Amino acid sequence: MEKLTNIGLQKKESQQVAEKLNELLANYHLYYQNLRGFHWNIKGIHFFQLHAKFEELYTIALTKIDAIAERILTIGQQPLHTFSDYVRVSRIVEAGDLSGDKETVSVTHQNLSTLLELEREILQLAAVTGDEGTVSLISEDINENEKTLWMLNAFLS
Q: Which Gene3D superfamilies match (predicted)?
């Protein structure tokens, strides 16, 4: 008999989903920190617009970080919780000493593209394993991130 989690999912499959969710969690932390730095350091003619936009984006990212960590716990696993783990696991890298509008928006675009790529991997895995809660969480996030990516593209055009 297959072992089940407290919410009725297969433990082995939930561990696989949690590993990918932990990777997403790590990437979101680096994305968040990059946004904080851009918010603090942005300069130039788009200062007011981008200062506010970066704050909006990092506030949204913080909410998503919490939701991802809580989903990992819900499926019976442990979320990563040290910054050294985040840096080790993340595909997104720290972006330091950037203050220009095009460069900060470009890095944000790259970071968000990385998040979307990872979310699509998780969506596929969660769907195959019957983890509807994770599918729902990630589907909603993909929709929001695609819209933000479209807006960043418009800025960079």
A: 1.20.1260.10
Model confidence pLDDT, tens digit, residues 13-54:
999 999 999 999 999 999 999 999 999 999 999 999 999 999
**Buried b / exposed e across 98-120, counting CB within 10 Å, b at 16+?**
beebeebbbbbbbbbebbbebbe
Calculated CA dihedral for residues 30, 35, 36, 40, nearest 10 degrees: 140
Q: What is the pLDDT of residues 102-111, one digit of tens each?
A: 999 999 999 9
- Give the separation between CA 45 and CA 50, rounded to whole angstroms: 10
CA distance to 123, 133, 135, 146, per residue, from 140 (Å): 11, 11, 9, 10
